[in-house]
Write a structure and sequence with these properties.
The chain has 563 residues and is α/β, with parallel strands linked by helices. Helices cover 64% and strands 7% of the residues. InterPro entries: LipidA_mod_glycosyltrf_83 (IPR050297), RgtA/B/C-like (IPR038731).
Length: 563
């Protein structure tokens, strides 16, 4: 951990390579061992599966209908992973793992000239080990790409502003990154980065920079050349229904009205960000205090800090106003905090500005308290709320124990060792989550096992699938083939119509409490067999998978799975 601002470029890039490999290993660890998490992952995965079935990688579909939730770039990323690892959790998630490691690498390399080699390496270390990174960079969702390209667009613009000799390259890279972010998530990919840049220039009293030095004459055509073709292609193929639906439903409606139960107060992100940045968020007061002390001269004398604060505040305030709120929505605001933390940790390690011992003990006490709260929740609350899961007390141990050990190193004035201890604690939590908790949770996500059961019974023979008074996208992904449709009847007449007009047998999943009524309501000419029953994590109830077929079609080999 011997960092210095004047370290050689060779040593710096060697450490960057180690950091990249460490981040990749951390994000990849057991990433493919569990089934997909409802609802976002299987929504994306099923859309990709239907693209494969249709031989069309332009128009996203879900359950046979147009899916306007997300643009195409993340599907293409998952497509690459699936070609290598197959249509499974590894293949679908490996792109996000790689993008996460590339984000850590880019953040470290791109900030070296802005803040120094040592602080940049610590910035990358923080980014790789926070709690939220262990979630977002192992998920088959568009967020990792958005995080990478938004960070690239803003840091490149800041580098262009600070280093005139490389201005053209950095500004054009910024425009290209905004375009790619737009193909990944839509207008947010350029609207908020553009707003951040404008706010920064206004604060600096330098708005004319935007058109005098901002290379608009090259940047805008480059942005359109990269960002527009897919939107035109999907518009033409869908008769513009996709573009209109995406703009109205996935953007304007989501911002103006709460969707899918995701809501919260205006201060929602003031609560989620410190949790997301654990264990390093315990040092945020120390990291932000220097900014407060130089606040009167900040805008004119410290453009890098001003830009980073504009980035952080504009992004968080924008989504604090939004009616729909999720922790993932402000992940793109974390990089400024990573940088502030990296700078402050370096100052403490180098002796340039040591932490006060009392402040360190206070910070570590907070981390210990979080660990103790996790121990209590895992030992008492989780078994009471989700009995099949059992005790998860061990999830609090990495934070609690690392806080105690780090306090010992503080007492002995071993500055580097407490930082190594906290890094090890963050990695240990990931190990515990993926080694012990993920397998336990996986058993309570029955869609994967229902799909396995159906394949055992059916082999290559035709069948149909349906869900009664219950739905999770995971069931469609794991139980269906290609672009097979999942029927969702609301009345018995609809169900009987499905039985008459679709391939037999029908595999019907429903809450176990509804099974007796279902058996009584269906005619005696049907053979109804319960082939799988399991508790489900999401709805906290037992689900049953029924195999329904005409009595005349029942044979011994159909009543028991092959093998």
């Amino acid at each position: 951990m011997a960092f210095n601002k004047s370290m050689s470029l060779t040593r710096f890039y060697f450490l960057c390579g180690l950091l990249f490999l460490g981040a990749f290993s951390l994000f990849a660890y057991h990433s493919g061992s569990g089934s997909l998490w409802d609802i976002d992952e299987p929504n994306n995965a099923q859309a990709l599966k239907e693209m494969f079935a249709q031989h069309n990688f332009v128009v996203p579909l879900f359950n046979g209908t147009l899916r306007v939730a997300k643009p195409a770039l993340n599907y293409w990323l998952m497509w690459g992973g699936v070609e290598v690892f197959g249509m499974n959790s590894w293949g679908l998630r490996m792109g996000s793992v790689l993008v996460g490691a590339l984000f850590v690498l880019y953040l470290t390399v791109s900030t070296r000239r802005l803040i120094g080699s040592g602080p940049a390496l610590l910035t990358g270390l923080v980014a790789a080990t926070i709690l939220h990174s262990q979630i977002i960079f192992r998920a088959a969702v568009p967020d990792p790409l958005l995080i990478l390209f938004v960070s690239m667009s803003l840091i490149s613009y800041l580098r262009a502003y600070q280093f005139p000799e490389a201005r053209s390259f950095n500004i054009l890279l910024s425009y290209a990154a905004m375009a790619l972010a737009t193909v990944d998530e839509g207008p947010i990919g350029f609207l908020i980065p553009g707003l951040i840049i404008v706010v920064f220039l206004l604060l600096r009293g330098n708005l004319p920079y935007l058109w005098k030095e901002g290379r608009l004459q090259w940047g805008l055509p480059l942005f359109l050349l990269i960002g527009l073709p897919w939107y035109v292609a999907v518009g033409v193929e869908s008769h513009w229904r996709w573009d209109l639906g995406f703009l109205l439903r996935a953007n304007i409606s989501r911002y103006n009205a709460e969707m899918q139960g995701h809501q919260g107060p205006f201060f929602y992100y003031l609560l989620t960000i410190p949790l997301a940045l654990l264990p390093w968020s315990i040092f945020l007061p120390q990291a932000l205090r220097p900014l407060w002390l130089k606040r009167k001269q900040l805008v004119q004398r410290y453009p890098v800090d001003t830009f980073l604060l504009s980035w952080l505040l504009v992004w968080v305030i924008f989504f604090s106003i939004s009616a729909t709120k999720l922790p993932n929505y402000v992940w793109e605001a974390y990089p400024p905090l990573f940088i502030f933390l990296g700078i402050r940790l370096y100052q403490a390690l180098s002796g340039e500005m040591p932490f006060r011992r009392r402040g360190l003990y206070a910070s570590l006490s907070v981390l210990f308290s979080v660990g103790a709260a996790l121990i209590y929740a895992g030992a008492v609350i989780v078994p009471a709320k989700i009995p099949p899961l059992g005790s998860l007390y061990y999830l609090g141990l990495p934070y609690a124990l690392s806080a105690i050990l780090a306090a010992l190193w503080v007492w002995k004035d071993q500055v580097g060792r407490w930082l190594i201890t906290l890094t090890a604690g963050a990695a240990a939590l990931t190990f515990a989550l993926m080694t012990y908790t993920e397998p336990a949770l996986n058993i309570l996500k029955p869609s994967y096992f229902m799909g396995e059961k159906i394949r055992q019974y059916q082999g290559d023979n035709p069948y149909s699938i349906a869900a009664w008074h219950w739905f999770q996208p995971n069931f469609l992904f794991y139980a269906g083939r290609g672009n097979m449709v999942l029927h969702q009847p609301r009345h018995m007449a609809e169900l009987q119509n499905i039985l008459r007009h679709n391939p037999s047998p029908l595999y019907l999943v429903l809450p176990s409490r509804d099974v007796p009524d279902m058996r009584r309501s269906l005619p005696d000419t049907l053979h109804i067999q319960s082939i799988y029953v399991s508790y489900e994590l999401y709805n906290h109830e037992n689900l049953t998978l029924l195999r329904i077929s005409p009595q005349s079609a029942v044979s011994l080999q159909h009543q028991t799975p092959p093998g």
